Each structure stands twice: as structure tokens, then as C-alpha cells.
Amino acid sequence: MYGVINYEAFLLTGILLNLIPGTDTMYIIGRSMSQGRKAGVYSVLGIITGSLVHTLFVAFGLSLILVKSVFLFNTIKIIGVIYLVYLGIRMILDKSNLSFQAATDSLNIRKIYIQGMLTSLTNPKVSMFFIAFLPQFIDTKAVGPIPFLILGLTFTATGLLWCLFVAYFSSYVTKKLRGNQKFGTVLNKLTGLIFIGMGIKLLQTKAPH
Asked: In this predicted model, what pLDDT tens digit does every residue of 18-40 receive, in sequence order?
């Protein structure tokens, strides 16, 4: 199929990999828990947009530059770390969203979407994963970006379904808790700590040799 081999095996492996919690999953859980389903869904859309951009970069060879340049890799990584820590500190210090209702009424969905996309784009591990994982299911005789696009879009589509489930489930199980003003503050701080933890984990990522 257009240079793709063992597509069924790739589909199953991709689904299993999507089930493993990572930076994107933790970001979505944090948003859904502290700000509700709508925030979670738009976080998912932002993350998926970033994944699509990574797919295009890999398909057209741009991510190879990232692999070969340690400086560029570390620069993007540091930007991602700073961004995640910044978001975490803001949520810890934020006192405006003390209740679920207030948070829902004041949601800036465009801002949440962009933040989700930037979280994905500033994570060089995503491109590294695509570069290492996708070629295993591409015929060595195949040329051009089509096989990468097929596999990348497949992986992103299964990721979208799983992430939406995570957003809905996380917001559902914490809905009553968010209605409590005191616990709403605790959720904000917990989410902030999750973001800071994500930044620290990203900082430990080493450039490929």
C-alpha cells in the first residue's frame, strides 16, 4: 500500500503506544481535571495539530536536520522546558479559577488550543519517535513522503481517539470535585506541578548521537 508494509501490525502497535502515558497525555489530563471537558478537548486538538506538523516535518525530511544538529535539538528542548515550567507556575499562582463554573465561563479556547500545539511542537522527542518508529513499516524501495504521511496520519488518528477519551474521562471523574471552591484551587496547583514535572522530564532528554 503505497510503500507501507505490515500496516495491520503498525496499526496495533500504534494503538498500544498511544495507550502509554506521555507528556501529551499528562498535559491533557491536567487541563481536563482543572478546567473541564471543553478545555481538555481543545488541548487535544492543539496536541494533534502539533503531531500533524511533526508528521509533515518527518515526511519531507526536515526533522533530519533536528537529528543532526545537537544545538538545534537542545534549543527546542530548552524552549519547551521553559514553556512548560512557565505554564505550571502560572497555574500554581493563579487564583482566578477557584471554582469550576468560573473556570468554564472564562475559558479562552483559542489560547488553550495554541498552548496544546506549542507543547507538542516544542517536544523534540516526538520527531525523534517518528523518525525511529515509522521507517520500520516502510518498504526500503519506496521513495517520497507518501508512506510517512500514511503512517503518521494513522498514528495521529488513533491518538486523537485515545486523547479525546482521556479528556472526557478525566473531566467526568473530577466534575463534582471542581464544583468545590477549595478543591478547585488544589486541582489548579496539582496541574501546575504536573506541567513543571513534564518540563523537568523533557530537560532530561538527550540529543541523538
From this structure: 887 777 888 888 888 878 888 99
Identify the H or E element spanning 93: helix 70-93
- What cell was used for 151? 503512517
Give the residue extent of every domain in the chain: 37-203
| Residue 156, all three cell numbers | 495521529
Do 192 and 89 form a contact (C-beta atoms < 8 A)? yes
Which residues are registered as beta bridge partners of 138?
4
**CA distances to 76, 117, 138, 142, 147 from 3, in Å:** 31, 29, 6, 5, 6
Locate cell 502497535: which residue? 13
Q: What whole-number distance in Å separates Cα of residue 87 and Cα of residue 83?
A: 6
160/133 Cα distance (integer angstroms): 18
**H runs (alpha helix) in 122-180:** 124-133, 146-173, 175-178
Tell me how many degrees the CA angle 157-162-164 measures, rounded to the nearest 5: 95
Distance CA 44, CA 61 (A): 26
* pTM given for the model: 0.74
Grouping H, G, I as helix, E, B as strand and the rest as coil, residue 161 is: helix
User: What letters, b where the CB count within 10 A reaches 16 and e where it falls short, cover 67-86?
Assistant: beeeeebeebbeebbebbbe
Cell numbers that stand for 15 in this block:
494503538
Give the other-Cβ count within 10 Å of 209's Cβ. Answer: 5
